Amino acid sequence: MYSKETLEGFLKVSTASVSDAVDKIAGKRGYMDFEIKPRISEKKIVGPAVTIQEGPTDEFVPPKHALDAIDECPEGSVMVIGIHGERDVAVWGGLMTAGAEVNGLAGAVLDGGVRDVTEIRRDSHFQVFARSVSPATTLGRFKTLSSNEPVLCGGVLVHPEDLIVGDLDGVVVVPKQHVQAVLKMATEIETREAEQARLIRETKSLREGLAKYGRI
After folding, report:
1. How many other CB atoms are there within 10 angstroms of residue 49's CB atom?
2. What is the crossing angle of helices 179-203 and 4-11, to 10°?
3. Cα distance from N-terminal residue to C-terminal residue, the chain
């Protein structure tokens, strides 16, 4: 869906700059709750969202929609799973990671927990952003309800094909209709901040940098 140049452009800019650009262009928050953190490594992820919704159940059923999506969604996708902020169960683990990695997914972003962290770190280069780490299974507690419909994750409504950008600062959702404008502004923000930081170091004055560039 997105060109190689667009994805590479977002890999070069921080989520902080992307978040600022979404604020201005989309007129709404794009950043997820601070609890949604990288749980595996420092690897950055960029890719279009494939969304999964989970809901409560007492049935012992596998997460069918998520399992199907892992095998079927386009290479480079980011799996986004909504579960209403449930921190005490894991909606992702080692087997799902193995499937996602061999199918070329870019990463996963979870409104719930991840488990098998030691296994994933040992065997995989796949990145997972999650609200928590928990050993508990969803079996008998939650099941997948739908795929590729808007889901709430980390306090942000994520639509299928919105662009997900995640790094050590957190995760930002870029609405698909604003991707190019956000990339342009985020790139400009990064350029100005680099110039501003250079001026501050040269003049040894934060005030001079602020006076010239008006950004903090």
Report:
1. 25
2. 30
3. 34
